[in-house]
Amino acid sequence: MISVPVNSCRQDAGFTLLEVMIAVAVLAIALTSLLGSQSASVGLATETRFHIQAPLLARKQLAELVVRKELFASEGEIGEEFPGFHWELQAEETFFGEESEILQDLEATLWHLTMIIRWGDNPLFTYQLDTYRQQDEQ
Q1: Percentage of the chain with pLDDT > 70?
Q2: Partners of 110 in the beta sheet?
Q3: Is 6 domain-assigned?
Q4: Among the listed residues 110, 104, 105, 97, the one whose alpha carbon sits nearest the alpha carbon of residue 138
Q5: How far apart are CA 84 and CA 77, in angstroms?
Q6: How many domains, the chain?
Q7: Residue 54, in any domain of the structure
Q8: From CA 38, how far away is CA 6, in angstroms rounded?
């Protein structure tokens, strides 16, 4: 009968501590890279969402103020549908002097309107819409 030493079978059964540590290190590097790219993706999605919504909200708010004939410097919150969004309207009378014969013939005053949409305190989330409106009385 042939006898097989008991210790010879156990040498190949399992991982060494070094192999486990290398595997954990590779896994940690991969997960760190994955989470970093996921975080960047969420940040870009948030920024894109703002840059899509802000121009629409600026036009909507300006249109509401034009309909109500409230074209003077004012500010407020957008509403419950868009929490954290704040609007500000800046209005200044525009004078062209001798530069434009067409604009000199206007009977009404020409106003330069600037609608600013902000989301939170981050300056990255600021949108500005400039336009001109003709209005008899301000």
Answers
A1: 81
A2: 134
A3: no
A4: 110
A5: 8
A6: 1
A7: yes
A8: 50
Q: How many CA atoms lie within 13 A of 23 on its CB side?
A: 6
What's the CA gap between 63 and 86, in Å, rounded?
Answer: 16
Q: What is the mean pLDDT of the chain?
A: 84
Asked if residue 131 lies in contact with residue 113, where contact means CB atoms within 8 angstroms, the answer is yes
Domain range for 26 is: 15-135
CB-based contacts of 25: which residues, under 8 Å, 6+ apart? Answer: none
In a domain, 115, yes or no: yes
The two structure tokens encoding residue 85? 């969004």
* Residue found under tokens 């109500």: 68
Q: What are phi and psi of 71, to 5 degrees?
A: -90, 65
For residue 131 the two structure tokens come to 């336009």
pLDDT digits (tens, 9 = 90+) for 26-64: 999 999 888 888 888 888 998 999 999 999 999 999 999
pTM for this entry:
0.67
Residue 3 lies in a domain: no
- Residue 21 has a pLDDT of 93
